[in-house]
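Our preliminary data section would be incomplete without showing what the modeling component actually yields. Below, a chain of 443 amino acids is followed by its predicted structure, encoded as tokens that our downstream tools consume directly.
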Amino acid sequence: MTSLPKASVRDTAGFLLDVFIPTAAKGPLLRRPRAEALAERLKLDERAVRRMQELDRKYPEGPLLLRLPVRNQALILRPGHLHAVLTQSPDPFSPASSEKRGALAHFEPRNVLASTRAERTVRRALHEQALDTSSPVHRFADTLLPVVREEADAMLAAAQAKGVLDWDVFSRCWQRGVRRIAFGDSARDDQELTKMLTRLRKDANWSVLKPRRRGVRDEFLRRVQERIDTAEPGSLASVMGSRPEPDAAAPQDQVPQWLFALETSGMAAIRALALLATHPNQALLASEEITNDSTGGRHLPFLRATVLESVRLWPTTPMILRQTTREVSWDTGTMPAKCGVLIFVPFFHRNHQRLPQADRFDPALWLRDDDQEDWGVVPFSAGPVSCPGRQLTLLLTSTLLSCLLKDTAFTFQDGHRLSPGRPMPGELNPYTLRFTPTVRAGV
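Predicted structure:
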């Protein structure tokens, strides 16, 4: 039985120092603003991609086993191998890796991402039902999109009063909208629920290295269950109201994933706004789509493509983790059972050798008929374990952008960094983005 190629001790250390540690330091479950700022200032994301390109050149066969003393860990370097892993998830490549189970145990221990076998099947089905995974337009769009419009109006009003649209204004309105989308208007001002989740996500950043706050977690999950029990018609949680008890799907452990994933999608939306504010040609196409829209925000392909480009350029989930359930044979050798598998997404999204427009803002990439995944472009992962909320996220964020841009122009206060004539930076820190809003003449 032949083993996979192994990285040298020096190359393993280089990967840890340039890729893994800086990425993990930014926070896998909750972003750390100071770490984001440091990564942006030192261009650590660009260094990480260069390190991955160096490994790709040095070890062309892959997957690559790292030389670690504690566990077997493989690194994916080729698009074909990436798709093999994603299409063969959850077996033999389980998303319930040891690191992920340790992290999610802090606030959603029975979540689908930490589950296996029959439990995973029933929990995944619940996500797909509630999130309307297969539909570009959620069946509750008539309820959900007015929430987005109202919060966009509130965002614009707050920005006009403050004279700037920044992350504080943006996130306050967006989080309020996320609670309403999940549970209904009664959850609009339940900031304590969001604060509890934030506290637990901070702990989850440390996975098994941080003791669990079981009391806080139990109280948080109890409050989530109360919100599910009183969820208003047309909210995401309303589909769970008639489920039996006890329920193998563990609804209260699935909903927190929606809360923090939809919150994170706000980062993609504000970065997309920065892209449009600094690229006049694409901004014109967006304006034309908004003006000609007769669907009430349901079908905005260019704005959806803009959000996809935002996530391609700056992935909100930069590391995809898997763990083998058994030995897996590759052309180059055998991957052992219980081996960690790591996909560093920015390496594939920013690889000039396979994607000529890697460092450009190019929404047309998502409007073509050819398959972007041939290059390893997977902003919402791919395969049976891909993000079940992809379509919902694109629906909500594209509608938000259309509402913000309909009658208002935004000037990005640090726009030179995103000039069409320059490569897009490896990091765009959402916490420091600032826009000057100007109501268009004649409105």
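The CA atoms of residues 148 and 396 lie 7 Å apart. The chain has a mean pLDDT of 95. Preliminary results of this kind motivate Aim 1 of the renewal.
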